[in-house]
Amino acid sequence: MSKTILIVDDSSSLRTVVGLALKGAGYEVIEGCDGKDALAKLDGRKIHLVISDVNMPNMDGISFVKQMKTLPAYKFTPVIMLTTESGADKMNAGKEAGVKAWVVKPFQPQQMLQAVQKLILP
């Protein structure tokens, strides 16, 4: 049974790069183009991990995580922020919202996969 990961980023090329790395490692991938779109994908199916950008139109990553954590099915879903933001205030806001890891772009796919493997429960 493969694990499902939701990638949320307004850059389709970034979603493709991350998606290819994850699929190559054996994960199923669902994509959202912003926080609103990603929330619509949280329809009760099991999602093992979310990888989200911070700066997106319609709904940013931190607002998305806060909203997601109000949904009982996704309350404990781990979140990795994959972003160009490396400011302490943004990271603290993310942590308060429930973000578990922060990967700064540009990133190495290997580095991201290691963060994913640490957070996805067997």
Automatic annotation (TrEMBL):
Signal peptide annotation:
none
Q: Which domain of life is it from?
A: Bacteria
Annotated ranges, domain Response regulatory: 4-120
Q: Which PROSITE patterns match?
A: RESPONSE_REGULATORY
The reply to whether Transport figures as a keyword in the UniProt entry is: no
Which keywords annotate this record? Phosphoprotein
| One GO term (biological process) | phosphorelay signal transduction system
Q: Which residues carry this modification: 4-aspartylphosphate?
A: D53
- Which CDD domains does its entry note? REC_CheY4-like (cd17562)
Is Transmembrane a UniProt keyword of this protein?
no
Any one Pfam family here would be Response_reg
Name this polypeptide is given = Response regulator
Organism taxonomic ancestry: Bacteria, Pseudomonadati, Pseudomonadota, Betaproteobacteria, Neisseriales
